[in-house]
Every structure is written in C-alpha cells, then in structure tokens.
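Re: export button greyed out
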Amino acid sequence: MPEILSYDFMRNALLAALLVGAVAPLVGIFLVQRRLSLIGDGLGHVALAGVAVGVLLDNQPIITALIAAVFAGVAIELIRVRGRTSGDIALAVMFYGGIAAGVVIINRVDGSQSSNLTSYLFGAITTTSTGDLIVFGVLSAVIIGVTLALRHRLFLAAGDEEYARASGLPVMALNITLSVLTAVTVVVSMRVVGLLLISALMIVPNAASQQVARSFRSATLWAVLFGMLSAVGGVVTSFYADTAAGGTIVLLAIAIFLLVAAVAALVTVATAHRHRVSERHPHEHGPGCGHEAVPHGDHVDYVHGSHLHAPHGGHYDEHADHATYPGATDPSDQEHVTR
Amino acid sequence: MRVTAVHQDSPLRGAPPAIRLDHASFGYGGRPFTEGVNLSVAQGEVVALLGPNGSGKSTTVRGLLGLTDHIAGSVEVLGTPLQDLADRSRLGYVPQRHTLSSSVRSTVREVIATGQLASRPWWRRATAADRATVTEAADTVGLADRLDSDVATLSGGQQRRVLIARALASRPDVLIMDEPTAGVDAANQVVLATVLRRLAALGVTMLVVTHELAALRGIVDRIVEMDAGHVSFDGTPRQYAEHRAAVSRAADAGHHHHYDVHHHDDEHDEPSGVLLSGAGPMDGPVEDGES
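Workaround output, generated via the alternate export path:
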C-alpha cells in the first residue's frame, strides 16, 4: 500500500476529493452555459457568513453554511428575474456582506489568529472526518441524482430560456434548482478547495472539456473526468510536495486546461494544411438534392461532378474519391489524400 | 409526421381554426401593446404576418406563446382557450435568432431533442419513437446528415433549420415562426424556402412573422398586415399585391392619405408583380431537384 493510503485522514481526503471533483464540474457546465461562471464565487462568500453563524452557535458549520448558500441561491434567481440594473448591485451587497460578516464573526469568536477562517476560505481537506465524508457523500448523491434527472431540461433552460418558457417548461423553477444545486456544491466543496477557490473547480474543468468535446454529453463526461483528475491529483501532489491541497487542486486543473488547449491548437494547425475547402458553393447538399450521396466513415460525401464534397461546418471539404484509393481502410487517411 | 396524418384524416370542414383571436390584446406588465386583434388561421393554412417594427406583430405572436401577457379578448388554439391550453407543445415555436447559444458544445441531435422535453414528464426518458421523431425532423429540414455535428460549426441558415426541426420534434399542430429568413444569405434562403414549402405541402399550419415576403412566394396562402397594434390588411397574396399597387398609385398620384396604410418599410416597396410570378431568382435549382 502506498504511503499516502496508510493514513486515515488521507484516505478520507482522497474520497472527498473524488466526490468534489465529480460534482463541481457536473453542475458547473450549466453555469458556463448560462455565462454565470462567477456565481459560485458569490455563493461561497455568502456561505462564509453561514459558517460563521455555525461557529458562533457552536453548531455544525456545514448545516448553517448550507442554509445561507441555498438562501442566497434562491435570492439570486429572484433578483435576476426582476432584471433591473439595481439587481446587480443587490448581488454585490449580498456577496460582500456575506464574506465581511463571516470574517468579523469568526474573528470575534476565535480571535484574530483563527485557523478556522483560513481552513474555510482555502480548504482543509486533511481535516475531513468520517462523519463529514458521510454528509458530503449524501449531498453529492443528491446533486448527481437531481442533475442527471433534469440535465436535458437544465440544458434547454440555460441555452434558450425563451423557447423553454414558450414550450411550457417551468423555467423559473429550473433556474432556482440550478442555483440551489450550485449552493449545495459550494458547501460540499468548501472543506476541499475552500470557499474562495470553489468556482475554479466548477468552471476550469469545463473550459478544458470544451476544447475536446463535440457534444454536450461528451463535454459533461470530459469535465467530470478532468475534475476528478485535478482533485485527486492535487491531493496526492500536496501530500508529497507538502503544499496547500486546495490551491494545488486548482493549479492542477488550470495546468490540465492549458495542456488540453495547447494540444487542441496543435492538432488544428497540423491538420489545417490537409483541409481543402471546395470552390464557392451556393448549393447545399442534402437528401434528394440530386447529387449521389456516399457514406464516408462518420459522415456523408456528395458526388459533385468528378469529385466528392464533404459537409464541414458551413462549407464543403474536397474529399478524394473512395474508389481511387482501395488500399486505404481508415476513412481519416482517405480524407487527406489529394489528387 | 403526425401533423400531416391528423390533417389528412380529419375533415377540415367543421374543424376548429388552428388559431382564433377575437379582439385579443397582449402586452407587458398589464399594459396592452396591441389593440383588439381579430385573426383566424385555419388548419393547414400558411399565413404571413407582416408589419413594421412596433406594429404589434411580435407582441401578438409572443402572446400566443405565453411570452407576453394576454390582457383582453379571447384567444383559442385548436378550439381550446389559451389559458386552458395544458399542452403548449401543440404550438411549435421557431424563435428569431441569428445563432444558437454557443457557450457550450452541443450537437444538432441534442438541440432538436430538447423540443420534446415539455411534452413528457421529467422522470420519463426519450423512447425509441421519440428518437426516431428527432431524426425525422432533421430529415424534414435537410439536416439528417449533420445530426452529430456541433451546432456552432453550422452556418446561420443551417442553425435556423435546426430551430425549425426542434419545433417539429414535439409534433406540433401549428408552427409559429418569427422571421425565419431574416439575416440569412441567398443560398440558405432558397433552402429555407424549400423546407417551408415542404412543410406546407405536408399540411402543417404555419403562422410566419416576416419582413421578406419574396422569400416565401408560393408558400403563403394568406397575408395579414399589422400596423400600430391592429390588423390593417387581411387577404390573399394576390389581393395584397393589388392592395400594395393601389397604395403605390395613390402615393404617386399624391393622394397618399386616402389610404390608411402607409409605406412603412423599404421591403414593402417591391413591385407587386413579383409576388404573383411563379419564377424568379428565388425559385432556384434546389426546388427542381427536390420534386
């Protein structure tokens, strides 16, 4: 057994990281879609006020943080619906009021050298107890269950709110659900990456997954994979390198994003010279367009005079005639042959 | 598609109109933006709704969809009062949108499938029949070969057709389109017109808000023009052409104000004959290949 697994607190830490790594990007993709990437940050600020109240009452800070964050999540949606400019300012007052109250109350209770405060702001994953882990596990299961059950509806409400409303979906309820899911994710993640870094774990894995995915489904799966990789990798790295776990997780997530983006850019450059766009093409090929359709690997080519046109984005690529190259078996090889 | 089956099986005579507005007014925040609008669309009919910006045509159409407040008058959809319409997916909506949201990746198939969400409860998954309908809808708009493409890579006209397919995926009884041809290049307008013609031939009832009548030539059965919150013209394309010609003649003769309909847009100043002639630049080769 590797050294890291011989400690109880590290086993708990790794399990907590795995949960958070999966849950945060799963919810985060809808925030990216709604262009509300920073909302998790705001909810984290308000959650700190909840933590402070828990510390003050000598109660479970997780429960009070959950109440504060969910309350703020619902409030955000109600304020957004009004659509006034003052709504933006109301959000700012709520967010900064939350973090300011949190800092003041915790320092008042614990003294100015409070380690409690930093552990909530930047995470203290190695202090995760088995009891915490059970609470995180239950909350994560709820988040995953609700998100998976409603993912198509959340996707539509986030992508085209007007159409969702016209087709009779309860858009307001869906938006509040997403807001509450975000709030619960913030609270589950606060011990792992800290309230100030939560947004990063919700958003950065999605930024990376957008570079490789072609569908919403695959983007979600990639984001969860990148999230778990960063969270678990970050905890392991922090154990051996003796660094702060929360910050290490976020830096690893950013490193993955940069690596994926660089590879994606290289692939684009490497394939660009083999990508021939056909002549200006006002006619659009389609079923029954008069041009013979030829299945070609994962797409359909159209016989256009002596050559093949393959739909690619808004234009057509020149694809070589299949019959000319009987030796080539991989469709991607055939694509690149020029005559 | 089922839409066609319904229309072919049921005798149109005696059937309730697809849409009936009786002195209906819509608006925002309790304030009406339209006067009492009277409008009836029969099942299987294709109606173009014209009018300058601010004429109330969008407010009316969005009112039918529940996006603006229904303030007064009566509104019926297939014989059911609007406020009692439980299944809103009977109205398929194609919003005016130049592009789809591109903040995250999604495929044509994923976007079209969202059109079915409102017609089934949240715990029920898409059935094989639902998935077949998605493919069928994509085929109707000529995008069957792009089902797994990222929508962000499609042209504006193709994205517009994805939105039409999304509306078709719920098997609606009426399609409501807001400016389907606006901002689309000529080649894609031809394809869009072909798609609309195909839908019309299938017997799909359509209410099309548009500025570009030329692109819809031969598809539209009736033209309704709105101005300043009320209906200012209602008739066949031929009558509309004559109406426009009369308005032009009056304007030329300096008797402009004898008519209560004025020139609002440059688009309306096209020669009347264009509306009636069968062959024009818009009846391109695609249409021939289609038949």
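Chain A has two domains: 3-242, 274-339. The button fix ships in the next patch.
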